[in-house]
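YM 10:42: ABC transporter ATP-binding protein sequence, as discussed on the call
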Amino acid sequence: MVITGLRPGNGPRRWNAARRKTTFEDGTGDFRRLPGAGPVRSVGRVIEVRNLSKRYGGTVAVDELSFAVRPGRVTGFLGPNGAGKSTTMRMMLDLDRPTAGRVLIGGRRYRDLPEPLRHVGALLDAGAVHAGRSARHHLLWLARSNRIPAARVREVLELTGLESVAGRRAGGFSLGMSQRLGIAAALLGDPPVLLFDEPVNGLDPEGVLWIRRLMRGMAAEGRTVFVSSHLMGETALAADHLIVIGRGRLLADTTVPEFIEANSRSYVRIRTPQPERMRDVLTEAGIPVRQAADGALEAHGAEAAKVGELAAAGGLTVHEVGTRTASLEEAFMRLTGESVEYRAGGADR
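YM 10:58: structure's back
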């Protein structure tokens, strides 16, 4: 499902009136604003989720959830399967009615916004397109229904790399092409608020890099960017802030570095041809140590310098010694381990 809006952004960029083109100062992006829009003002809009709950009979999908999504940064929305992410995003857009609580965008409910499709661009289901329409006709239909100039269609087709296939029926598109069409529709109105559910789904590596730069560039303009993803590595690269939920409840609302630090433990990795002797030296010094799958040792609760000193004092040969920190995925698994609906056989418990 695609929902589009029409509001200009603001931020560090250069405006070329002749080409109607915006280029981010870091050179990463080619987002084009609506023709004739000219210079813009700040559009900072906070999405406020207040005590939001959703029940389906006896099943609680979202349970008194509260958080805020602020402009000027990319906010990642994470949670295990069945955590309530999609339900929450649908309630943000008034596609599902909350059992209790509400969501405000710029202080108003989505349905109370004047011409709401001009305020928010969203990609929830890239497959929600009339299969018989061409990509161009699909976007033209959206543009007409939202009073967006037809010239904007050409611009978003070019931006998303679909210009050469614009005349093809959407029903024949690959998953990656359908995803790009959904992104084009979300960008069509130049909205100040963007909601993306799994935006890199089906994209090739170039496309993943492109959408990452696009999201970060639009956040730098002052837009509100909220993105749900199950790809931890990509989220770590794209997001500035994280909202993490489990079983419909808020688990974390923090920056990416703070989340990793709070939900993981750093350790010292040691590679040595004398692992047993190294283990004995560390154990005698009161340092907990375990052996990794590749044979390296992992010492917890000690500084790398201390480990090096102990190895030198014991006359041990060391090929590698250095501090390692957990990845976002490791921190996520540690936090949400008790919130998953199911586990595959043999999964860590």
